[in-house]
Structure formats: structure tokens, C-alpha cells
Amino acid sequence: MTGTSLTLRALLKSAARQAGLGGPGPIAGLSPAAKGFAVAAAATNAPIVVIVPTDGDVEQMVADVRFFLGALAGLSDHELRHGVMPFPSHEVDPYRGLAPHFDVAAARGRALYGLATGSARVVVAAAVALLPRLSPPDRLLAAGTCLSVGALLEPPDLGELLADAGFTPEDPVEAHGEFCVRGGVVDFFPAGDDQPIRAEFAADSLESLRRYDPATQRSTRSLDRAEILPLRELFAPDLDSGTPGLDADRSAWLLDYVVRSPGHRMYLSEADESRTAIEKRLELAAAGFAAAEERGDSVLPPDQLLVEWPTLDACLGSAARLEQLWEDQDGAHTVRHVPCQPVVEF
After folding, report:
1. Which of 3, 31, 117, 125 has the CB geometry, 3.0–4.6 Å to 340, for a possible disulfide?
2. This prediction's pTM
């Protein structure tokens, strides 16, 4: 580490300490970037979940937290990508028969897996992303694994695991989320990776793992291990039930994943905007359900697809607020005011 980076780390830690960042309780007066700084300061001590009003806010907060946490803790880009994760909303009407975009589903699966395993340091969630009911953490964990060369495993077993994780069978494998089993070879393309992976087997053991170029099929480098992360959040009630539908296990929600991490903290950015976003989405869901019933579609009611408002309201009320402008009218909170000067963007 260079002297410059050490100096920057010392300056940021001093600034966080003097401003009272990193502790519990609400904070007001924060610019968007300062909110990222506050979250990063708190994330050096405990896992954090931050709720923000929109998906656009998710992207900005993730970028800011990664920058400040990298400077405060000296983390690499790889550690920051796997430690600070977005949890976007589905961005689709559940009553229109549309599936979330692959990138959205993959990001949500990675974040949930990070919370379930305790590897995530910060998860930034759009407010409406909290609404969908999920399968329980233990079921999601069963759909992920880490492959190591020499492991006792057969190609069909790996194919079943990939299918359960949400990968789609395709031959050849060319896009993220695809896999193919051919004899003693299994190809699969993890979400977010630059190249797919080829697993070659000898009898009942994994002989090699290699990255390869899908255009030429030539290997580019060898791997000792490869992680398979779930690309979905809903699973059938048992491992042998195949692709989940209306019978998917929806007995959990995001908070069931969060509470697995001891000492976790939750922050709520711009509480009024976040609550308004959730209320509007619940109204749209009710209207969508009514329209689906009129069409004669076989659908679940909103209270079986989405978390109900009283549960969400209690969760939001327990989170520490991060606000740009906030006056505590009833004096119910001890609010720290940290005046920040926004940086002009060109």
C-alpha cells in the first residue's frame, strides 16, 4: 500500500470519527455521497443493509460505498464487488407474466447468497425490492456450491445443481446463465464472469476447471475452484420438484436473510420517498391482480406474492434514517446533523 493511500485512509477515518459517522441512530444533512461515506464507516464494524428509494439510487449508493469502503479498509476491487452488492427491484408487474431481466435476477440471487453466507458487508436495496416474498435462506444456500478440482462429483450431478441454481440448458454455451452437459464435460457461464467455465471429469471426480473462449472453444486459463451462485430467489418446496411456479416456497422475505448476520444494521435513506415508492407499488399490485382476475388468469393474490405493508412499515421504522433534509418534529429521535456541501457535477 502506498503512502498516499495510507494518508487518505487516515484522513477519512479522522473525518468519519469527527462527524460521528459509523454509529447507530439517524443522521441528517447528508449529501448523496456523504450517505455512502456514512454507510462505509459503519460497515467496517458490522454487516449493513441500506434501503434507498429507487433503483437509480441503488447504483449511486453502491458506487459511493465501494469507493469509501475501499479507501477506509484497503479492499481490492474484487473484494468490493463481492462485499458491496446491489439488490434491485424486479422492475416488472408480477401479474403480466413477465420474468425479471436476467441481470436483475442474478444480482438479487448474489445479494441473498451473500447475506445468507455472511460474506456480504453491504447490501443496497431499492425500497420496492423488499416487497417480493422469497424462498427461505437454507433452500437458497442448497442451490449454491464451490467446485474444487478433485471433488467427487459426476457430470449429471453438476448439471442438476446448475439447473436448480437457475441456469438454463443451451448447447453451445454462449451467454450468462447457460450450461450444457456433454458426456464427461460440463460447460457453464456464471453471471458477471468474462468467460464461461469448462469442467472436465474423469470417472466420478472433477479433473479440471478451465476458462475458455466461447468463440474458439480454446482454453484461456486453468482454475483451482469455481463458485456457483443462485440465479433466482424462488424454489419449489423440495429439491426434486423442478422449476417453481405457483407452488414455490414463499415463506421468507429479505429480513429473514438479514437477521442471519450477527450485529447487522439497517439504514433507510430518504424515508418518505422510500415509503411512497412501496405504497405506490402495492397499489399497482392490487390493480394488477384485479385485472388478472378479470382476464381469468390463474394468479396468487398480492398478500401471497408480496410482503404486507404493516410488516414492511415495522422494518422501515426500525432502520436508522439517512436524510438530506429532516427536522424531527416530535422530538422522538436524537438526530445528528452533519452539514455537507454538495459537489457540483459537470
Report:
1. 31
2. 0.90
